[in-house]
Amino acid sequence: MIVAFSVSPSAAEEDGGVSEAVARAVKVVRESGLPNSTNAMFTNVEGESWDEVMDVVKRAVEAAGEGSSRVGLVLKADIRPGYEGQLTAKVERVEKHLSE
């Protein structure tokens, strides 16, 4: 399964940004050892089970929320049992069609 998620704590930096908090969340994801990618809006993480992926998301949300009384979470999941490596494979299939 692939989960795309975005976290935003209520306690922002002076300029309104949340990059420090988001960096704490991304660090948790990267240290998990699961395949992942981060872009300007979401972090994607891929794993074999709900428990595996949601544990990482939970810990990332907790890390982002350090020092904040509230955290917003947006989450989208692609649940496709029996498929692995889809974090890159899905993009490769799209790129193939673009080059035709």
TrEMBL record:
InterPro entries in the cross-refs: MTH1187/YkoF-like, Thiamine_BP, UPF0045_domain
Which family does this protein fall into? Belongs to the UPF0045 family.
Return the protein name: Uncharacterized protein YqgV (UPF0045/DUF77 family)
Q: Pfam families from the entry?
A: Thiamine_BP (PF01910)
Q: Which residues form a coiled coil?
A: none
Leader sequence range is none
**SUPFAM superfamilies to which the protein is assigned, alphabetical:** MTH1187/YkoF-like
Q: Which residues cross the membrane?
A: none
The Thiamine-binding protein domain is annotated at 3-95
